[in-house]
Amino acid sequence: MSLTHSSDRSAPWENRSHIRRLRRSDRADFAAHLLRLDAESRRMRFGSAVGDAVLARYAEGALGDDSVLKGVFMDGTLRGAAELRAIRSPLPEAAFSLEQPWQGQGHGARLFASLVDTARNSGLRRFTLQCLSGNVAMQKIARRHQAQLHFEDGEVTAELRHPGGDMASLTREAAEERFAQSLAAADRALYRLATEVGVDLRLRRV
């Protein structure tokens, strides 16, 4: 075991994950997440190969007034995102991204369920999800939410229909945000205490 210096702060919820809404202040973290996607994950997310410059421009305009983004954080770092775009249009569109080391562990399903709650609580009765025909994992998740899948030219459009929000969906989303806020408060308290006693928490064991 070695002691190394990291430019990233070590979070007090080490090895834990949480989901919350992303804000404009998270734009840099969202861009960093997209840039960490490997080539196959980028293709699955955007439908074709995309370079770093394209991803940086996309992240710059992603957190606007007409979109909602949810992020899954692992050890305090954004590792996956669920986007609901054009929410004021008749048929908003959802998209998902998850970094390769965290795929196949249920995080995509958690993000999907969280975004469904957001759509319901926002009064959206339906939205679509476009993905490549090879993205079997996302299709399975969509089917769990009673999505209607349409296949055409190598792409799949999943249309989900949901009633408005209810007590369960409102409670789940509120609990998500409260949990994220409690972690942030614990983070601030830990670093305040560490500063008072002269401990640099950027030094972490790996």
Would you write up a description of this structure?
The chain has 206 residues and is α+β, with helices and mostly antiparallel strands. Helices cover 40% and strands 26% of the residues. The protein has six helices and nine strands; from the N terminus they run E-E-H-H-H-E-E-E-H-E-H-E-E-H-E. The chain has a seven-stranded mixed β-sheet, with helices on both faces. The longest helix has 30 residues. The N terminus is likely disordered.
Low-confidence runs? 1-15
Please trace the helix and strand order, writing H or E for each element.
Answer: EEHHHEEEHEHEEHE
Shape: globular
Q: Give the strand content.
A: 25-35%
Biggest sheet strand order reads 2-3-4-5-6-8-7
Short overview:
This protein has 206 residues and is an alpha+beta fold. It contains 6 helices and 9 strands; from the N terminus they run ββαααβββαβαββαβ.
Q: Which key features would you list for this structure?
A:
206 residues; two-stranded antiparallel ribbon; 6 helices; 40% helix; globular; disordered N terminus
Please write out the topology:
Elements: E1 3-5, E2 17-21, H1 27-36, H2 39-46, H3 52-62, E3 67-74, E4 77-85, E5 93-98, H4 107-121, E6 126-132, H5 136-144, E7 148-152, E8 155-161, H6 167-196, E9 203-205
